[in-house]
TrEMBL record:
Species annotation: Flavihumibacter stibioxidans
Protein name (Swiss-Prot/TrEMBL): DUF1415 domain-containing protein
InterPro entries reported in the protein's UniProt record: DUF1415
Amino acid sequence: MVHAEQIISQTKKWITDVVIGCNFCPFAAREMKRNTVRFTVSESQSIEECLTAFLEACRQLDDDESIETTLVIFPNLTGDFEEYLDLVEMAEELIASEDYEGVYQVASFHPEYQFAGVASDDPANFTNRSPYPMLHLLREESLEKALEFYQGDPEEIPENNIRFAREKGLLYMKMLRDNCF
C-alpha cells in the first residue's frame, strides 16, 4: 500500500517535472517555491466521500489564506475516467451550491485523462494526466491577479501545451509522468 507521504512526493515530482518542467502552468513554479500549495490525500473510494473531502478542502482554504491552492488527491478512487468526470461535474455543482462561485475554481487531473474528441493515445492528453485522480482547487482572485502580470495571451496556454506535448510525442510524455513513481 502506498502511503500519503509517498503519494504527495510523487505528485510533487509530477508538478515539478511535468507541470513546471513542460511549462503547462506558468503560475505553478511560483507557488511551489513559496510553499503555498497544499496537498491532501483522501483515502475515499466513493464519489460521496470524495465530495466531502473536496468540500473540506474548500473550507480549509476559507480558514487559511496562506494556502494559495490545494490538490485533493484520490489514490483509491476506482472506476474509469467517465466516472471521474462525474466527480468533476459534481464538484463544480458543489462550488455553486455552497456559494463558492467566483471564489474557487476546479481543475481536473487523472491518470487516464482524455480530451473530448481526441484519441486516447494522443500526447496532448498528458497535459492533464497525473499520477493519481485529483481535483485542484484554485483561488479565483489569485488567478486573476496572476493573469494581470502574465506576459502573453493566457488563452494560448492550452494550445501551447497541446503543441508541446504533441511535438515531444507519446513516449516522451508517458515517460515523464511514469518517472514520478
